[in-house]
Design a protein that fits this description.
By secondary structure, the chain is an alpha/beta fold. Helices cover 32% and strands 16% of the residues. It contains seven helices and nine strands. Helix 4 (134-144) crosses helix 5 and helix 5 packs parallel to helix 6. It binds zinc ion (2 copies). Residues 5-214 form the PHP domain.
């Protein structure tokens, strides 16, 4: 029984939909959820050039105050029916730790529950958004040598994100830790990367961080599994890591996606 969706996007997402906050909230109540967190993509760090063609990976910095205000508004409006948290999905970008820490020091006091995610990988000196498109993933394969090298680079970067000093407002949950599998049916890996994943889970556990148990991969045609997969989710759960379901919905109709494929988590 899922009681919380800890990963929801909003109309403030430049690559999302215009669905209103109240539409997401109504859907959450309808689905029987008790708690949700809005985790819009934080503005990308100052000085970082968004490599995707539309340059729409993060929220417009000019919208941030309005976003925080609007979430506070629905939080109060629906407080009898649903516990709503204010969050952001903050990018960890190698080389932009200081900018990210400065941002979190400024806005962290307004945040209840946030996610730290890796979408951008640095390969041969250039940043590529790993999950943007099959072509972007292919570009990473060309730069690193193989699909397996892309996975290794991804896990390595997520491990860095766990270790990174992002200050006292660093998000307590790590986003979709197997996002590098988004195009796995198109560009299969030879290795399961078990050792790297085990190491990643160990550092997450050691820092007492939570895992985003993300349903979005289940509806991606080349992925068709949750992030992380059932086997990894089960290993994490056995280690005592808390997993928090996240629909990663960018439309109200995307809420609860993948929730039927979660393994049973005993409290
Ligand atoms: Zn998004
Ligand atoms: Zn994400």
């Amino acid at each position: 029984m899922i009681v919380k969706d800890g990963h929801i996007h909003t109309p403030y997402c430049p690559h999302g939909s215009g669905d209103s906050l109240t539409l997401y909230v109504e859907k959450a109540i309808e689905a029987g959820l008790k708690e949700i967190t809005f985790t819009e993509h934080a503005p990308l760090p100052q000085g970082f050039h968004d490599p995707v063609p539309e340059q729409d990976s993060g929220m417009n910095p000019a919208d941030l105050e309005n976003y925080l205000r609007d979430v506070e508004k629905v939080k109060h409006q629906y407080k009898k029916d649903l516990r709503i948290h204010t969050g952001l999905e903050v990018d960890y970008i190698e080389g932009f730790e200081k900018e990210t820490r400065d941002f979190l020091n400024q806005y962290g006091p307004h945040l209840d529950d946030s996610i730290l995610s890796v979408h951008f990988l640095k390969a041969s000196g250039q940043y590529i958004c790993l999950d943007y498109s099959p072509e972007a993933f292919k570009a990473l394969i060309d730069l690193t040598g193989s699909a397996d090298a892309v996975h290794s680079l991804y896990y390595d970067t997520v491990i860095r994100s766990v270790h990174a000093d992002l200050g006292s407002y660093k998000p307590a949950r790590i986003g979709h830790i197997t996002l590098s599998r988004k195009f796995q049916r198109l560009y299969p890996a030879l290795s399961s990367h078990e050792t790297e994943i085990k190491k990643l889970l160990e550092v997450i556990k050691a820092r007492d961080l939570e895992l985003d148990y993300n349903g979005a991969g289940t509806v991606k045609p080349y992925c068709q599994e949750t992030y992380p997969s059932p086997a990894i989710a089960s290993a994490a759960h056995q280690m005592g890591i808390r997993l928090v379901y996240g629909s990663d919905a960018h439309t109200a109709s995307g809420m609860m996606q993948g929730s039927d494929q979660l393994i049973a988590l005993k409290p």
